[in-house]
From TrEMBL:
This is Pseudouridine synthase RsuA/RluA-like domain-containing protein. SUPFAM superfamilies: Pseudouridine synthase. It comes from the Eukaryota. One of its GO terms (molecular function) is pseudouridine synthase activity. InterPro entries: PsdUridine_synth_cat_dom_sf, PsdUridine_synth_RsuA/RluA, RluA_PseudoU_synthase. CDD domains: PseudoU_synth_RluA_like. Residues 214-382 form the Pseudouridine synthase RsuA/RluA-like domain. GO terms for biological process: enzyme-directed rRNA pseudouridine synthesis. Signal peptide: none annotated.
Length: 466
Protein backbone atom coordinates (compact mmCIF):
# COMPACT_ATOMS: atom_id res chain seq x y z
CA UNK A 1 0.00 0.00 0.00
CA UNK A 2 1.15 3.53 -0.72
CA UNK A 3 0.08 5.88 2.05
CA UNK A 4 -0.56 9.57 1.49
CA UNK A 5 2.14 10.28 4.01
CA UNK A 6 4.69 8.32 2.01
CA UNK A 7 3.56 9.92 -1.21
CA UNK A 8 4.21 13.37 0.17
CA UNK A 9 7.61 12.52 1.56
CA UNK A 10 8.88 10.04 -0.99
CA UNK A 11 12.33 10.33 -2.35
CA UNK A 12 12.55 7.44 -4.68
CA UNK A 13 13.08 6.02 -6.39
CA UNK A 14 15.00 5.33 -7.74
CA UNK A 15 16.06 5.93 -8.43
CA UNK A 16 15.39 9.67 -7.62
CA UNK A 17 17.70 10.89 -5.80
CA UNK A 18 17.64 14.01 -3.45
CA UNK A 19 17.59 12.96 0.15
CA UNK A 20 15.26 15.01 2.36
CA UNK A 21 16.37 15.81 5.88
CA UNK A 22 13.46 18.02 6.79
CA UNK A 23 10.11 17.66 5.10
CA UNK A 24 7.45 20.31 5.36
CA UNK A 25 4.06 18.92 4.43
CA UNK A 26 1.30 21.27 3.42
CA UNK A 27 -1.78 19.35 2.46
CA UNK A 28 -5.03 21.20 2.86
CA UNK A 29 -8.57 20.90 1.61
CA UNK A 30 -9.74 23.17 -1.15
CA UNK A 31 -13.47 23.52 -1.58
CA UNK A 32 -15.71 25.57 -3.79
CA UNK A 33 -13.63 25.02 -6.93
CA UNK A 34 -15.13 26.70 -9.94
CA UNK A 35 -15.08 23.37 -11.81
CA UNK A 36 -16.95 21.61 -9.01
CA UNK A 37 -14.17 19.20 -8.01
CA UNK A 38 -13.13 18.44 -4.44
CA UNK A 39 -9.40 18.21 -4.18
CA UNK A 40 -6.55 18.37 -1.78
CA UNK A 41 -4.52 21.54 -1.94
CA UNK A 42 -1.48 21.18 -4.12
CA UNK A 43 1.86 20.43 -2.55
CA UNK A 44 5.01 21.81 -4.16
CA UNK A 45 8.39 20.29 -3.54
CA UNK A 46 11.31 22.67 -3.74
CA UNK A 47 14.94 21.60 -3.46
CA UNK A 48 17.02 23.64 -1.05
CA UNK A 49 20.29 21.83 -0.36
CA UNK A 50 19.15 18.58 1.25
CA UNK A 51 15.89 20.04 2.54
CA UNK A 52 12.44 20.10 1.12
CA UNK A 53 11.18 23.63 1.63
CA UNK A 54 7.64 24.78 1.15
CA UNK A 55 6.98 27.10 -1.78
CA UNK A 56 4.90 30.06 -0.55
CA UNK A 57 2.57 29.58 -3.49
CA UNK A 58 1.87 26.06 -2.31
CA UNK A 59 -0.03 27.38 0.69
CA UNK A 60 -2.02 29.94 -1.22
CA UNK A 61 -5.72 30.11 -1.92
CA UNK A 62 -7.57 28.49 -4.79
CA UNK A 63 -7.35 31.78 -6.68
CA UNK A 64 -3.57 31.47 -6.52
CA UNK A 65 -3.84 28.00 -8.01
CA UNK A 66 -5.99 29.26 -10.85
CA UNK A 67 -3.69 32.19 -11.55
CA UNK A 68 -0.99 29.90 -12.92
CA UNK A 69 -0.50 30.99 -16.52
CA UNK A 70 -0.44 28.67 -19.50
CA UNK A 71 2.77 30.31 -20.68
CA UNK A 72 4.53 28.53 -17.81
CA UNK A 73 3.37 25.19 -19.18
CA UNK A 74 3.71 24.88 -22.94
CA UNK A 75 5.00 21.37 -23.67
CA UNK A 76 7.43 19.10 -21.85
CA UNK A 77 9.68 19.26 -24.88
CA UNK A 78 12.07 20.80 -25.59
CA UNK A 79 13.76 19.77 -22.37
CA UNK A 80 14.98 22.53 -20.04
CA UNK A 81 18.74 22.70 -19.60
CA UNK A 82 18.28 22.46 -15.84
CA UNK A 83 15.64 20.98 -13.59
CA UNK A 84 12.87 23.38 -12.64
CA UNK A 85 11.33 23.44 -9.17
CA UNK A 86 9.31 20.21 -8.82
CA UNK A 87 5.62 20.45 -8.13
CA UNK A 88 3.18 17.71 -7.13
CA UNK A 89 -0.61 17.93 -6.95
CA UNK A 90 -2.80 15.57 -4.92
CA UNK A 91 -6.43 15.50 -6.11
CA UNK A 92 -9.70 13.69 -5.45
CA UNK A 93 -12.19 13.29 -8.29
CA UNK A 94 -15.66 14.68 -7.64
CA UNK A 95 -17.32 13.90 -10.97
CA UNK A 96 -16.57 10.97 -13.27
CA UNK A 97 -14.85 11.80 -16.54
CA UNK A 98 -11.63 11.42 -18.52
CA UNK A 99 -8.36 11.88 -16.67
CA UNK A 100 -7.23 14.46 -19.24
CA UNK A 101 -10.30 16.65 -18.75
CA UNK A 102 -10.18 16.31 -14.98
CA UNK A 103 -6.56 17.42 -14.62
CA UNK A 104 -6.90 20.13 -17.26
CA UNK A 105 -9.83 21.72 -15.47
CA UNK A 106 -8.69 21.11 -11.90
CA UNK A 107 -5.20 22.55 -12.35
CA UNK A 108 -5.95 25.00 -15.16
CA UNK A 109 -3.28 23.43 -17.38
CA UNK A 110 -3.17 23.21 -21.20
CA UNK A 111 -4.52 19.85 -22.49
CA UNK A 112 -1.36 19.22 -24.53
CA UNK A 113 0.78 19.69 -21.44
CA UNK A 114 -1.38 17.26 -19.46
CA UNK A 115 -1.15 14.76 -22.34
CA UNK A 116 2.64 15.13 -22.18
CA UNK A 117 2.60 14.43 -18.44
CA UNK A 118 0.63 11.25 -19.01
CA UNK A 119 3.04 10.20 -21.78
CA UNK A 120 5.98 10.82 -19.40
CA UNK A 121 4.33 8.62 -16.76
CA UNK A 122 3.93 11.56 -14.38
CA UNK A 123 0.29 10.88 -13.45
CA UNK A 124 -0.75 8.20 -10.96
CA UNK A 125 -4.08 7.16 -9.47
CA UNK A 126 -5.62 4.99 -6.76
CA UNK A 127 -9.23 3.88 -6.61
CA UNK A 128 -9.44 5.09 -3.01
CA UNK A 129 -7.70 8.08 -1.48
CA UNK A 130 -4.77 7.02 0.77
CA UNK A 131 -4.92 7.91 4.44
CA UNK A 132 -3.74 11.46 5.21
CA UNK A 133 -0.58 11.97 7.29
CA UNK A 134 -0.64 12.68 11.02
CA UNK A 135 -0.23 16.38 10.26
CA UNK A 136 -3.56 16.52 8.42
CA UNK A 137 -6.08 19.15 9.46
CA UNK A 138 -9.64 18.48 10.58
CA UNK A 139 -10.92 19.47 7.14
CA UNK A 140 -8.52 17.11 5.40
CA UNK A 141 -9.56 14.23 7.58
CA UNK A 142 -13.21 15.10 6.97
CA UNK A 143 -12.68 14.98 3.21
CA UNK A 144 -10.85 11.64 3.48
CA UNK A 145 -13.66 10.15 5.54
CA UNK A 146 -16.27 11.45 3.11
CA UNK A 147 -14.82 9.38 0.27
CA UNK A 148 -13.76 6.32 2.27
CA UNK A 149 -16.69 5.67 4.57
CA UNK A 150 -18.07 2.13 4.11
CA UNK A 151 -21.46 3.32 2.84
CA UNK A 152 -19.73 5.13 -0.03
CA UNK A 153 -17.26 2.38 -0.85
CA UNK A 154 -20.01 -0.25 -0.97
CA UNK A 155 -21.62 1.62 -3.86
CA UNK A 156 -18.47 1.58 -6.00
CA UNK A 157 -18.43 -1.51 -8.25
CA UNK A 158 -14.77 -0.92 -9.17
CA UNK A 159 -13.57 -1.87 -5.70
CA UNK A 160 -15.88 -4.81 -5.16
CA UNK A 161 -13.86 -7.69 -3.71
CA UNK A 162 -10.95 -5.44 -2.77
CA UNK A 163 -9.91 -4.39 0.70
CA UNK A 164 -9.47 -0.68 1.33
CA UNK A 165 -5.70 -1.19 1.46
CA UNK A 166 -5.77 -2.90 -1.94
CA UNK A 167 -7.89 -0.10 -3.41
CA UNK A 168 -5.38 2.49 -2.14
CA UNK A 169 -2.57 1.01 -4.23
CA UNK A 170 -1.37 3.49 -6.84
CA UNK A 171 -0.96 2.83 -10.57
CA UNK A 172 0.43 4.86 -13.44
CA UNK A 173 -2.05 6.43 -15.86
CA UNK A 174 -1.13 5.44 -19.43
CA UNK A 175 -4.03 6.70 -21.57
CA UNK A 176 -5.31 10.28 -21.91
CA UNK A 177 -8.89 9.05 -22.27
CA UNK A 178 -8.80 6.84 -19.17
CA UNK A 179 -11.98 7.27 -17.12
CA UNK A 180 -11.71 8.16 -13.45
CA UNK A 181 -14.74 7.76 -11.24
CA UNK A 182 -15.87 9.83 -8.28
CA UNK A 183 -13.63 9.26 -5.26
CA UNK A 184 -10.53 8.35 -7.27
CA UNK A 185 -7.27 9.73 -5.92
CA UNK A 186 -4.98 11.33 -8.53
CA UNK A 187 -1.34 12.37 -8.07
CA UNK A 188 0.08 14.67 -10.73
CA UNK A 189 3.79 15.43 -10.97
CA UNK A 190 3.21 18.76 -12.68
CA UNK A 191 6.92 19.46 -12.99
CA UNK A 192 8.62 16.06 -13.32
CA UNK A 193 12.33 15.48 -12.85
CA UNK A 194 14.09 15.97 -16.18
CA UNK A 195 17.22 14.48 -17.72
CA UNK A 196 18.61 17.02 -20.21
CA UNK A 197 21.74 14.93 -20.81
CA UNK A 198 19.61 12.47 -22.78
CA UNK A 199 19.48 15.03 -25.59
CA UNK A 200 23.21 15.75 -25.50
CA UNK A 201 24.46 12.18 -25.92
CA UNK A 202 25.48 10.41 -29.13
CA UNK A 203 23.65 7.24 -28.16
CA UNK A 204 24.95 5.15 -31.06
CA UNK A 205 28.47 5.70 -29.79
CA UNK A 206 27.44 4.40 -26.35
CA UNK A 207 26.33 0.99 -27.66
CA UNK A 208 28.86 -1.69 -26.66
CA UNK A 209 27.10 -4.77 -28.10
CA UNK A 210 23.87 -5.80 -29.80
CA UNK A 211 22.64 -9.41 -29.78
CA UNK A 212 19.32 -11.08 -30.52
CA UNK A 213 18.49 -11.15 -26.80
CA UNK A 214 20.08 -8.05 -25.29
CA UNK A 215 21.94 -4.80 -25.80
CA UNK A 216 24.89 -3.68 -23.68
CA UNK A 217 25.08 0.07 -23.17
CA UNK A 218 27.85 2.28 -21.82
CA UNK A 219 25.43 4.36 -19.76
CA UNK A 220 26.27 8.08 -19.56
CA UNK A 221 26.30 9.73 -16.13
CA UNK A 222 23.39 12.07 -15.49
CA UNK A 223 20.83 9.70 -17.00
CA UNK A 224 18.34 7.18 -15.62
CA UNK A 225 18.48 3.56 -16.77
CA UNK A 226 14.75 2.89 -16.67
CA UNK A 227 13.12 6.06 -15.41
CA UNK A 228 11.80 7.61 -12.23
CA UNK A 229 8.40 7.82 -10.58
CA UNK A 230 7.55 10.87 -12.69
CA UNK A 231 9.55 10.31 -15.89
CA UNK A 232 9.68 7.07 -17.88
CA UNK A 233 10.35 8.85 -21.17
CA UNK A 234 13.84 10.33 -20.70
CA UNK A 235 15.64 7.04 -20.02
CA UNK A 236 18.58 5.07 -21.35
CA UNK A 237 16.22 2.31 -22.44
CA UNK A 238 14.12 4.72 -24.49
CA UNK A 239 16.98 6.57 -26.18
CA UNK A 240 19.00 3.41 -26.89
CA UNK A 241 15.89 1.88 -28.49
CA UNK A 242 15.56 4.89 -30.77
CA UNK A 243 19.26 5.01 -31.60
CA UNK A 244 19.14 1.38 -32.74
CA UNK A 245 15.80 1.90 -34.51
CA UNK A 246 14.34 -1.13 -32.77
CA UNK A 247 10.68 -2.02 -33.18
CA UNK A 248 10.21 -3.24 -29.61
CA UNK A 249 11.38 -1.16 -26.64
CA UNK A 250 14.40 -2.30 -24.67
CA UNK A 251 13.74 -3.47 -21.12
CA UNK A 252 15.63 -2.70 -17.94
CA UNK A 253 17.33 -5.71 -16.32
CA UNK A 254 19.30 -3.96 -13.56
CA UNK A 255 20.10 -0.47 -12.30
CA UNK A 256 23.07 1.75 -11.62
CA UNK A 257 22.81 5.20 -10.06
CA UNK A 258 21.91 8.16 -12.24
CA UNK A 259 25.28 9.77 -11.47
CA UNK A 260 27.22 6.60 -12.38
CA UNK A 261 28.39 5.66 -15.87
CA UNK A 262 29.20 2.29 -17.37
CA UNK A 263 27.93 -1.12 -18.46
CA UNK A 264 24.20 -1.75 -18.38
CA UNK A 265 22.39 -4.72 -19.94
CA UNK A 266 19.03 -4.00 -21.61
CA UNK A 267 16.85 -6.94 -22.67
CA UNK A 268 15.26 -7.07 -26.11
CA UNK A 269 12.51 -9.45 -25.02
CA UNK A 270 10.45 -10.09 -21.90
CA UNK A 271 11.77 -13.65 -21.80
CA UNK A 272 15.40 -12.59 -21.69
CA UNK A 273 14.58 -9.95 -19.09
CA UNK A 274 13.37 -12.78 -16.84
CA UNK A 275 16.42 -14.89 -17.70
CA UNK A 276 18.82 -12.11 -16.76
CA UNK A 277 16.94 -11.36 -13.53
CA UNK A 278 17.36 -15.01 -12.59
CA UNK A 279 21.09 -14.86 -13.30
CA UNK A 280 21.38 -11.86 -10.98
CA UNK A 281 19.41 -13.62 -8.22
CA UNK A 282 21.64 -16.69 -8.57
CA UNK A 283 24.76 -14.49 -8.46
CA UNK A 284 25.89 -15.54 -11.95
CA UNK A 285 26.46 -11.92 -12.99
CA UNK A 286 29.80 -10.38 -12.06
CA UNK A 287 30.25 -6.60 -12.01
CA UNK A 288 33.50 -4.71 -11.66
CA UNK A 289 33.65 -0.99 -10.92
CA UNK A 290 36.27 1.74 -11.13
CA UNK A 291 35.97 4.31 -8.36
CA UNK A 292 38.13 7.39 -8.02
CA UNK A 293 38.45 7.78 -4.27
CA UNK A 294 39.68 10.84 -2.40
CA UNK A 295 42.02 8.77 -0.20
CA UNK A 296 43.89 5.47 -0.35
CA UNK A 297 41.87 2.27 0.07
CA UNK A 298 43.69 -0.96 0.98
CA UNK A 299 43.06 -4.09 -1.08
CA UNK A 300 40.81 -6.80 0.32
CA UNK A 301 37.20 -7.41 1.28
CA UNK A 302 35.34 -4.51 2.87
CA UNK A 303 32.33 -5.37 5.03
CA UNK A 304 29.62 -3.08 6.40
CA UNK A 305 25.99 -3.34 7.44
CA UNK A 306 23.49 -0.99 5.84
CA UNK A 307 20.50 0.51 7.60
CA UNK A 308 17.37 -0.93 5.92
CA UNK A 309 15.61 2.24 4.80
CA UNK A 310 14.72 3.14 1.21
CA UNK A 311 15.73 6.78 1.29
CA UNK A 312 19.23 8.12 0.85
CA UNK A 313 21.81 8.77 2.16
CA UNK A 314 22.54 5.22 3.20
CA UNK A 315 23.95 4.79 6.69
CA UNK A 316 26.38 1.90 7.12
CA UNK A 317 27.98 0.42 10.23
CA UNK A 318 31.26 -1.42 10.66
CA UNK A 319 29.67 -3.46 13.45
CA UNK A 320 26.94 -6.04 12.98
CA UNK A 321 23.49 -4.62 13.73
CA UNK A 322 20.50 -6.91 13.81
CA UNK A 323 18.21 -6.27 10.87
CA UNK A 324 20.76 -4.22 8.91
CA UNK A 325 21.77 -5.56 5.48
CA UNK A 326 25.19 -7.07 4.78
CA UNK A 327 27.31 -5.07 2.31
CA UNK A 328 30.50 -6.52 0.90
CA UNK A 329 32.86 -5.45 -1.84
CA UNK A 330 36.38 -6.48 -2.73
CA UNK A 331 39.02 -3.88 -3.57
CA UNK A 332 41.17 -5.63 -6.17
CA UNK A 333 43.70 -2.83 -6.61
CA UNK A 334 44.18 0.82 -5.75
CA UNK A 335 46.60 3.11 -7.57
CA UNK A 336 47.46 6.77 -7.09
CA UNK A 337 46.56 9.12 -9.95
CA UNK A 338 46.35 12.91 -10.33
CA UNK A 339 43.19 14.55 -9.07
CA UNK A 340 41.05 15.64 -12.08
CA UNK A 341 41.82 19.24 -12.98
CA UNK A 342 39.22 22.00 -12.84
CA UNK A 343 38.56 21.93 -16.61
CA UNK A 344 37.81 18.20 -16.56
CA UNK A 345 35.53 18.60 -13.55
CA UNK A 346 33.75 21.46 -15.27
CA UNK A 347 33.32 19.48 -18.51
CA UNK A 348 31.62 16.61 -16.72
CA UNK A 349 29.80 18.88 -14.24
CA UNK A 350 31.47 17.36 -11.20
CA UNK A 351 30.44 18.98 -7.94
CA UNK A 352 33.43 20.71 -6.37
CA UNK A 353 33.40 19.66 -2.73
CA UNK A 354 36.18 21.24 -0.70
CA UNK A 355 38.15 18.08 0.07
CA UNK A 356 41.30 19.11 2.00
CA UNK A 357 43.86 17.40 -0.28
CA UNK A 358 43.30 17.47 -4.02
CA UNK A 359 46.80 16.71 -5.23
CA UNK A 360 46.18 13.00 -5.75
CA UNK A 361 43.19 10.69 -6.02
CA UNK A 362 43.13 6.88 -5.90
CA UNK A 363 41.60 4.76 -8.64
CA UNK A 364 40.17 1.57 -7.16
CA UNK A 365 39.04 -1.50 -9.06
CA UNK A 366 36.17 -3.05 -7.11
CA UNK A 367 34.42 -6.39 -7.30
CA UNK A 368 30.87 -5.84 -6.04
CA UNK A 369 29.93 -8.85 -3.92
CA UNK A 370 26.50 -7.61 -2.80
CA UNK A 371 24.32 -5.21 -4.73
CA UNK A 372 22.89 -2.62 -2.36
CA UNK A 373 21.80 0.86 -3.41
CA UNK A 374 24.69 3.37 -3.05
CA UNK A 375 26.80 0.55 -1.60
CA UNK A 376 30.20 1.50 -3.05
CA UNK A 377 29.59 5.18 -2.37
CA UNK A 378 28.55 4.62 1.25
CA UNK A 379 31.23 2.04 2.06
CA UNK A 380 34.16 4.03 0.67
CA UNK A 381 32.97 7.18 2.43
CA UNK A 382 32.65 5.25 5.70
CA UNK A 383 36.32 4.32 5.32
CA UNK A 384 37.29 7.95 4.85
CA UNK A 385 37.76 7.65 1.08
CA UNK A 386 34.63 9.11 -0.56
CA UNK A 387 34.27 9.12 -4.32
CA UNK A 388 35.37 12.29 -6.10
CA UNK A 389 32.36 14.51 -6.79
CA UNK A 390 30.02 12.59 -4.50
CA UNK A 391 28.19 15.52 -2.95
CA UNK A 392 26.04 13.23 -0.77
CA UNK A 393 28.74 11.22 1.01
CA UNK A 394 31.84 13.41 0.87
CA UNK A 395 30.52 16.08 3.32
CA UNK A 396 29.90 13.41 5.98
CA UNK A 397 33.36 11.91 5.43
CA UNK A 398 34.87 15.39 5.79
CA UNK A 399 32.94 15.95 9.03
CA UNK A 400 34.31 12.69 10.44
CA UNK A 401 37.81 13.63 9.26
CA UNK A 402 37.56 16.94 11.12
CA UNK A 403 36.05 15.37 14.26
CA UNK A 404 37.05 11.70 14.60
CA UNK A 405 34.30 9.71 16.31
CA UNK A 406 31.52 11.95 15.03
CA UNK A 407 30.19 9.02 13.00
CA UNK A 408 28.40 6.86 15.59
CA UNK A 409 28.70 3.83 13.29
CA UNK A 410 32.38 4.23 12.37
CA UNK A 411 35.52 2.53 13.61
CA UNK A 412 35.22 4.07 17.08
CA UNK A 413 31.68 2.78 17.42
CA UNK A 414 29.09 3.80 19.93
CA UNK A 415 26.91 1.86 22.33
CA UNK A 416 23.18 2.58 22.31
CA UNK A 417 20.84 1.97 25.19
CA UNK A 418 17.84 1.37 22.94
CA UNK A 419 16.77 0.96 19.34
CA UNK A 420 15.22 4.42 19.53
CA UNK A 421 18.61 5.89 20.44
CA UNK A 422 20.23 4.07 17.53
CA UNK A 423 17.64 5.35 15.06
CA UNK A 424 18.02 8.87 16.40
CA UNK A 425 21.79 8.65 15.94
CA UNK A 426 21.34 7.34 12.40
CA UNK A 427 19.09 10.28 11.52
CA UNK A 428 21.56 12.76 12.99
CA UNK A 429 24.42 11.20 11.05
CA UNK A 430 22.37 11.18 7.83
CA UNK A 431 21.86 14.92 8.33
CA UNK A 432 25.64 15.40 8.02
CA UNK A 433 25.46 14.26 4.41
CA UNK A 434 24.90 16.52 1.41
CA UNK A 435 22.68 16.68 -1.64
CA UNK A 436 22.49 14.44 -4.69
CA UNK A 437 25.15 15.15 -7.36
CA UNK A 438 24.02 17.36 -10.22
CA UNK A 439 25.31 15.07 -12.96
CA UNK A 440 28.30 12.76 -12.44
CA UNK A 441 30.61 11.28 -9.84
CA UNK A 442 33.85 9.35 -10.40
CA UNK A 443 32.28 5.90 -10.47
CA UNK A 444 32.07 3.59 -13.48
CA UNK A 445 30.62 0.12 -13.96
CA UNK A 446 33.67 -0.85 -16.01
CA UNK A 447 32.98 -4.56 -16.64
CA UNK A 448 30.04 -6.92 -16.64
CA UNK A 449 30.11 -10.66 -17.33
CA UNK A 450 27.97 -13.73 -16.82
CA UNK A 451 27.86 -17.46 -17.54
CA UNK A 452 31.40 -17.79 -16.18
CA UNK A 453 32.74 -15.20 -18.57
CA UNK A 454 31.10 -16.49 -21.76
CA UNK A 455 29.51 -13.06 -21.99
CA UNK A 456 32.06 -10.35 -21.15
CA UNK A 457 31.86 -6.60 -21.83
CA UNK A 458 33.89 -3.51 -20.91
CA UNK A 459 32.91 0.16 -20.87
CA UNK A 460 36.23 1.67 -21.95
CA UNK A 461 38.15 4.48 -20.19
CA UNK A 462 36.18 6.40 -17.52
CA UNK A 463 35.64 10.13 -17.88
CA UNK A 464 38.55 11.07 -15.60
CA UNK A 465 41.03 9.06 -17.75
CA UNK A 466 40.02 10.45 -21.13
Amino acid sequence: MVSLSSLLSFPKLHNFIIAPVVIQRTLATVTGHRHNHHHLRHHRRCYSSSTYASDPAATGTISTLNSIRHEEYGRLLPCPSKNVVPRIEHLVVREEGSILDFITKSLDLPPLYVADLIHFGAVHYALVCPKPPSTATTEEIKLYKEFTKPSVLRNRPSIKGKTTREAQKTFRVTQVDQLVETGTYVRVHVRPKRFPRCYEIDWRSRIIAVTESYVVLNKPAGTSVGGTTDNIEETCATFATRALELTNPLRTTHQIDNCTEGCVVLARTADYCSVFHKKIREKQVKKLYLALAAAYVPSGVMTHYMRPVKRSPKVVSEDVIKGWNLCQLEVLECRRVPWPNALVEQKYEIDDIDWPNKEFAYECKINLLTGRTHQIRAQLAARGAPIVGDSIYMPAAMAELASPGLNPFGKYGKQFESEIDRESAAEEWAAKHGKEPRVAIALQACQISWDEGDHFYEAGPPWWAQ
